[in-house]
């Protein structure tokens, strides 16, 4: 049988808090450096130490970056989860375990291969320091994988050197552990396995990075100076990344900070600070997850109605309530789009890659200031906390911040009476002033109560309605300003379409290829923002049947399409996944086939369809 | 409705250093009930800013929700104001202050706004020592929602409907001292003599300045049996300190009883002139300040004046080491690390 090259899945089963993360990352990064598309995913508990945690790495020569089912190789170093881990290996797959202790016979399966490696024993024999033994045990299995999967040894060694910045003793200890793993495989097993790696050049220019880091960097490039936040998984690392980059790139000559980061007392306060900063002419933002969005709702309504810019990065996780705090979902769409009471709606952006996290975060500041309203970036745990192969971050040399309609002292001199909420340009967007601009002109009162065009409090129903209608005009203006959806009309027939966004993108695109193999051609559209632009309206109108792919129970994107576009609900078919794991191409394919022709998909075999 | 007051100024009105009369420090016509204590405090704020010759447009007024929180419309008409949401003024003020450290920040709140819904933010803005003036117009009730007891209503006090408050009162001034507020004063809306100098000192204070001002609600809480009524407060008030603020570089034109006074120097060379009544009380000693408040409370007295001040603690900007240039004035060239750096960053992720 020909070996399967660059097309398999490895899962690592570890104990949380035992330093496995850097060993597992070493594996994934080696694949990346070998020029082969790779998708690592952390599957971790809401716990600091002790509970099971997994790291799943998909290697795909064809560049499919979504998750798929079917584990080819399990590296099991957690006795706690071993019973389950054994069952999760695909028939014909491999199970690597620490053979320092004899394997429980209950874990024996006829249809998989067992590769015992005495990791603990070797680590104990080679290293004195008990803490080091624990860490280096992990490198031993990387060594074993290096042989079994034909990893490029030189790449692994370079990465180790980079990680320890050439610190000799640490590098040598890691090399030693690596050698132990490699030697053991050489002596005891035939290698490499029937699936393995081979060097390629498929990732020219690409980077490997997580979405939260990209958001933090995007905020630095986008000119954010005030950040307020309250810790919550999976958004915390946005704040950490922002702070890290600020320390590097936002220091004045005397070491002073050209930024202010406040860890707030809660999410209400975080959003209040963001609004205060933006009101005062600074670009401020916050990052949170579902529970935080709930708390921020009242303030978001204020910012919408009082027309104060604000940027919120919502790294979604599985709800409701505390839900599954360390699992992914796209389930805050409705909560974010309509956060707050009354007739309120907000601009949403849906990044799908780290590159887009970077760009859209930067752009959200432009949009928020141009539209004078909150902009919510909806990313999720999968995108935010996992490394993704991505196009590199891009910034146009000529790019200037778009600060929106803000009047200077000179401009105020030139106009008659300043009307904060006058629609002078007919686009629904009024002019604003920053506090302190002019001694006698341009001051106004910002409030969440109804007001007239001159910002004076009023309970006159006609004035209130005029203001609400202007906000609708502004919403219409926004449709032409937000990033347009990506449309692909390749099916020729134009009958069936797929609609997806954010992290459902990779698996949707893979599913599209699978469907093509099944003889089903579909058009596709990737939504990048709410409100929906004209291209979305056209796509929905021109297709007879549309599969709306998303990761929540209630088909929230589908509901928003129905509400905003007033289209017949029947033609929008939900394709869903909400178990907390990223949606797979196979699941999408199956749901679509089922809907198109229910007879066809009675019992199909996973491993065959999963490319 | 708020009405704009006619801008008529008498030629003989006194002018301050900037050439402004008091008129330039007024706002729209108040829509509060006639006789509401809050209006007196608004007038005192206007007066304090006038006397200190503060540029009105370099003041930002931020409030929560309530009758008290409406007042920023009624003073300093040339300042930007922000009437935010109930109980959350401190966070908005924090963000605004981070954006521009050069303005004077006036936070106006009520006892409902600060001691109930906004208690968390009140506590944390103190903890951060945000450079602002925080005024609570304290009437012991929720004026705007028609007179329900607030958390500062004294135990046993009677509200308009005749019911007796069974719960202990939250004492905001003691709490502020306890929490480490760097300036804590207490006063009465009807006592301009004391209130104006306290406000001036609070403005000059380089950190968080808290003023708890008893401010009777004539409509819902000015009845016999209420401990926040005009009559009750007048009978139970005990002044401790703070005669006047003496701006630096200026002639001192008020005379003091030397034996009983002490000075507190502020960052810009101004001094607060204090009059020590209680011998065992020192305005720079937290313990004695708390003691004095407790003792007064036991005697059912309201201790007013400057209770505590500390000018050494760092305000939030100093703690965060933010640049002297207001953050809202930084431009792309300072904020955006640029294309070349981005190339290096990309390289780091390969
Ligand atoms: C979230 C929220 N809950 C309730 C209210 C209703 N409300 C408006 S003002 C107020 C109380 C104000 O009391 P206080 O702060 O003491 O101000 P006062 O009117 O007494 O000056 C309440 C409960 C509100 N505006 N927002
Ligand atoms: S109800 Fe009370 S607090 Fe409100 S305006 Fe009237 S007197 Fe003042
Ligand atoms: Mg009150």
Characterization of the model:
The complex is a heterodimer of chains A (611) and B (350). Chain A is built from 20 helices and 23 strands. In chain A, strand 14 (347-349), helix 12 (354-371) and strand 15 (374-380) form a beta-alpha-beta unit. The two termini of chain A are 18 Å apart. With 350 residues, chain B is α/β, with parallel strands linked by helices. In chain B, strand 5 and strand 6 form a beta hairpin. Classes of the chains: A alpha/beta (611), B alpha/beta (350). At the A-B interface, strand 9, helix 7, strand 11, helix 9 and helix 10 of A face strand 2, helix 3, helix 5, helix 10 and helix 11 of B. Strand 17 (445-447) of chain A pairs parallel with strand 2 of chain B. Bound molecules: thiamine diphosphate, iron/sulfur cluster and magnesium ion. Chain B: InterPro entries: 2-oxoacid:Fd_oxidoreductase, THDP-binding, TPP_enzyme_TPP-bd. Chain B: This is 2-oxoacid:ferredoxin oxidoreductase subunit beta. Chain B: Residues 65-213 form the Thiamine pyrophosphate enzyme TPP-binding domain. Chain B: It comes from Algoriphagus oliviformis.
């Amino acid at each position: 049988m020909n070996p399967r090259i660059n097309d398999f899945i490895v899962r690592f089963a570890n104990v949380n808090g035992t330093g496995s993360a850097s060993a597992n990352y070493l594996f994934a990064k080696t694949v990346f450096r070998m020029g082969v598309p790779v998708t690592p995913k952390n599957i971790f508990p809401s716990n600091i130490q002790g509970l099971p945690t997994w790291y799943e790495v998909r290697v795909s020569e064809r560049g499919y970056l979504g998750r798929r089912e079917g584990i080819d190789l399990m590296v099991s170093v957690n006795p706690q989860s071993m019973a389950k881990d054994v069952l999760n290996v695909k028939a014909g797959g491999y199970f690597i375990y620490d053979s320092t202790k004899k394997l429980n016979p209950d874990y024996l399966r006829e249809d998989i291969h067992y590769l015992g490696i005495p990791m603990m024993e070797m680590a104990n024999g080679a290293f004195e320091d008990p803490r080091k033994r624990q860490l280096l045990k992990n490198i031993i299995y990387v060594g074993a994988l290096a042989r079994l999967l034909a990893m490029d040894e030189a790449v692994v060694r370079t990465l180790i050197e980079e990680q320890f910045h050439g610190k000799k003793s640490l590098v040598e200890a890691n090399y030693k552990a690596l050698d132990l793993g490699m030697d053991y495989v050489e002596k005891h097993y035939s290698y490499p396995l029937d699936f393995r790696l081979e060097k390629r050049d498929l990732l020219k220019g690409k980077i490997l990075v997580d979405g939260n880091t990209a958001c933090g960097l995007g905020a630095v490039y986008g000119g954010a100076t005030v950040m307020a936040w309250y810790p919550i998984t999976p958004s915390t690392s946005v704040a950490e990344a922002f702070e890290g980059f600020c320390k590097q790139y936002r220091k004045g000559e005397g070491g002073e900070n050209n930024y202010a980061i406040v860890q707030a007392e809660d999410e209400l306060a975080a959003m209040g600070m963001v609004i205060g900063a933006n009101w005062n002419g600074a670009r401020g933002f916050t990052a949170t997850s579902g529970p935080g969005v709930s708390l921020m709702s009242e303030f978001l309504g204020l910012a919408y109605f009082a027309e104060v810019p604000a940027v919120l990065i919502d790294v979604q996780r599985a709800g409701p309530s505390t839900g599954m705090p360390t699992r992914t979902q796209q389930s805050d769409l409705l909560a974010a789009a309509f956060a707050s009471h009354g007739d309120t709606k907000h601009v949403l952006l849906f990044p799908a890659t780290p590159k887009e996290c970077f760009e859209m975060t930067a752009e959200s500041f432009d949009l928020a200031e141009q539209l004078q309203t909150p902009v919510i970036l909806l990313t999720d745990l999968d995108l935010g906390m996992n490394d993704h192969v991505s196009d590199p971050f891009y910034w146009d040399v000529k790019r200037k911040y778009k600060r929106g309609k803000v009047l200077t002292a000179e401009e105020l001199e030139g106009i008659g009476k300043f009307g904060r909420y006058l629609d002078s340009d007919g686009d629904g967007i009024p002019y604003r002033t920053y506090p302190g601009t002019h001694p006698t002109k341009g001051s106004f009162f910002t409030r969440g109560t109804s007001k007239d065009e001159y910002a004076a409090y009023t309970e006159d129903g006609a004035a209130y309605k005029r203001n609400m209608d202007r906000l609708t005009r502004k919403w219409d203006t926004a449709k032409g300003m937000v990033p347009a959806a990506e449309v692909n009309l390749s099916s020729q027939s134009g009958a069936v379409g797929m609609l997806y966004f954010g992290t459902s993108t990779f698996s949707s695109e893979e599913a599209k290829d699978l469907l093509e193999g099944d003889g089903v051609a579909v058009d596709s559209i990737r939504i990048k923002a709410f409100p929906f632009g004209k291209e979305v309206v056209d796509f929905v109108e021109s297709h007879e049947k549309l599969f709306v792919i998303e990761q929540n129970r209630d088909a929230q994107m589908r509901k928003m399409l129905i509400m905003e576009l007033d289209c017949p609900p029947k033609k929008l078919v939900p394709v869903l996944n909400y178990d907390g794991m990223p949606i797979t191409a196979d699941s999408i394919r199956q749901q679509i086939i089922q809907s198109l022709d229910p007879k066809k998909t009675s019992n199909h075999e996973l491993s065959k369809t999963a490319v | 409705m708020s009405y704009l007051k006619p801008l008529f100024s008498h030629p003989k009105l006194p002018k301050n250093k900037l050439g402004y009369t008091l008129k330039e420090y007024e706002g729209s016509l108040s829509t509060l009930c006639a006789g509401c204590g809050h209006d007196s405090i608004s007038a005192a704020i206007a007066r304090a800013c006038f006397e200190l010759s503060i540029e009105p447009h370099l003041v930002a007024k931020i409030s929560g929700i309530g009758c008290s929180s409406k007042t920023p419309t009624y003073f300093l008409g040339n300042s930007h104001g922000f009437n935010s949401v109930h109980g959350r003024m401190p966070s908005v003020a924090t963000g605004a202050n981070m954006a521009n450290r050069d303005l004077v920040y006036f936070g106006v709140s009520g006892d409902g706004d600060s001691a109930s819904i906004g208690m968390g933010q009140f506590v944390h803005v103190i903890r951060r020592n945000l450079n602002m003036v925080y005024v609570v117009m304290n009437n012991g009730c929720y004026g705007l929602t028609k007179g329900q007891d607030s958390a500062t209503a004294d135990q046993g006090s009677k509200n308009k409907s005749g019911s007796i408050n069974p719960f202990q009162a939250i004492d905001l001034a003691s709490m502020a001292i306890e929490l480490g507020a760097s300036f804590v004063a207490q006063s009465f809306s009807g006592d301009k003599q004391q209130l104006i100098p306290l406000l001036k000192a609070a403005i000059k204070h380089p950190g968080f300045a808290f003023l708890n001002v008893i401010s009777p609600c004539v409509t819902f809480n000015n009845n016999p049996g209420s401990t926040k009524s005009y009559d009750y407060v007048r009978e139970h008030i005990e002044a401790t300190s703070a005669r006047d603020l003496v701006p630096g570089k200026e002639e001192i034109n008020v005379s003091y009883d030397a034996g009983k006074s002490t000075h507190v120097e502020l960052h810009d060379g101004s001094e607060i002139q204090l009059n020590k009544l209680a011998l065992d009380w020192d305005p720079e000693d937290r313990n004695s300040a708390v003691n004095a408040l407790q003792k007064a409370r036991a005697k059912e007295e309201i201790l007013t004046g400057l209770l505590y001040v500390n000018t050494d603690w760092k305000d939030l900007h100093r703690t965060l080491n933010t640049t002297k240039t207001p953050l809202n004035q930084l431009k792309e060239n300072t904020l955006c690390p640029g294309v070349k750096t981005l190339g290096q960053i990309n390289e780091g992720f390969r």
